[in-house]
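BUG-385 | component: ligand-complex export | severity: low

The export step for nicotinamide-adenine-dinucleotide jobs runs without errors, but we want the raw record kept on the ticket for reference. Input record follows.
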Amino acid sequence: MKAVHFGAGNIGRGFVGLLLHEAGYEVVFADVADALIDQLASTPSYDVHEVGDEPAVKTVDNYRALNSRSQEEKVIAEIADADIVTTAVGPNVLRFLAPVIAQGIARRGEDLAPLQVMACENAINATDILRDEVEQAYGGAASDLAARAVFANTAVDRIVPNQAAGQGLDVTVETFFEWVIDRTPFEGSAPEIPGATYVDDLEPYIERKLFTVNTGHAAAAYFGSTAGAEKIADAMADDAVAARVRAVLDETKQLLVAKHGFDPAEQEAYVQKILRRFTNQHLPDTVVRVGRAPLRKLSRRERFVGPAAELAEHGTHPAALLEAMRAALSFSAPDDPEAVALAEILATQDPDTATTSITGLEAEHPLFGAVRDLIAEHPVGSLAG
Ligand SMILES: NC(=O)c1ccc[n+]([C@@H]2O[C@H](COP(=O)([O-])OP(=O)(O)OC[C@H]3O[C@@H](n4cnc5c(N)ncnc54)[C@H](O)[C@@H]3O)[C@@H](O)[C@H]2O)c1
Ligand SMILES: O=P(O)(O)OC[C@@H](O)[C@@H](O)[C@H](O)[C@H](O)CO
């Protein structure tokens, strides 16, 4: 069994690659980072260090590595007879993978089972986004594509920080993980991946994950950054930050319970567990990594505006989520292109225009005015701190 996995970064090596390896797949890592691919190609194994209450070390071997830019033809050939394609590259990068995946699918022999494609990104229905791009790039008929490839949405959860320099290919991760996969597209032939959970309706799970883990995580990063913390665990050790994060998760809990019918006690236990994960002092995770790409995180269907908009539509003023958005608007990370672009938007666009360009909210939306007021705190001509 062979899997082609795009994105040999933190979650690629520390989670998806590991689980596919443990499921018995030979993993072909495809990435554009030259040094990383060279190192993977010349190293027979790497270790995943799980840190926390029950630490463990897992070794990943039986993999190969290709540069998906300079060795594109080889990647296409690998996809042509692979069983699975997975990605962990970031939602905005998926469109760049689509032409390669489409060509690989087009070259598959008629006798092969459909390629199983799963995007493992933090975004609602990331695999649908990838499928739409692959459809556009695919030369043949849509029915032909549907016969050759199956696309399933997933929700992946494991905190994998940026790795220390000098650590080589080894990855430090938390012990917790969850991989929830939509079973329905596979029509009875879902891949056997020990540790993965199959469900018939992914929406509640992906929303619960994104609007609890990622909303809370990003809130901790932005409140923590404002309070001067560098690490997420240190931010959460600040009682004022922890209380504000908790208030944010109270609001998303209200939405998730009302919308998806989660049992309130079960959701509360989920929240508690996640808050504990954020305090893991063994995990060297930073506010800069977790707060990365603030424009993506402040966009319409994402972890802040998504739940806040739905609460506002149902008459609830999402005060804590708005506080988190206020902190996000001031997020300063000079090496993060989106943080720089956000500051530029705030410094150059009037509040109405900036509200639309940052959040995608419609001017008549009940949340628009409250977000506009936050944005108006950054007068045109100033640069966000
Ligand atoms: N790190 C986590 O805790 C975590 C957990 C769950 C989900 N995720 C999601 O997984 C995805 C990846 O996150 P990460 O933390 O591993 O990031 P990362 O930056 O560590 O890894 C991304 C990798 O993708 C590669 N890449 C970029 N463009 C590419 C391209 N065109 N083709 C092939 N490879 C390309 C990069 O070189 C990098 O190695 C994101 O969507 C993230 O939200 C991350
Ligand atoms: O990857 P992002 O930028 O969408 O979000 C940053 C973190 O919140 C995220 O990577 C978490 O560590 C992960 O989603 C945990 O499962």
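Assignee comment: Attached the raw record above. The pocket of nicotinamide-adenine-dinucleotide (ligand 1) is lined by residues 6-12, 30-33, 36, 68, 88-91, 93, 96-97, 121-122, 156, 158-160 (CB under 6 Å).
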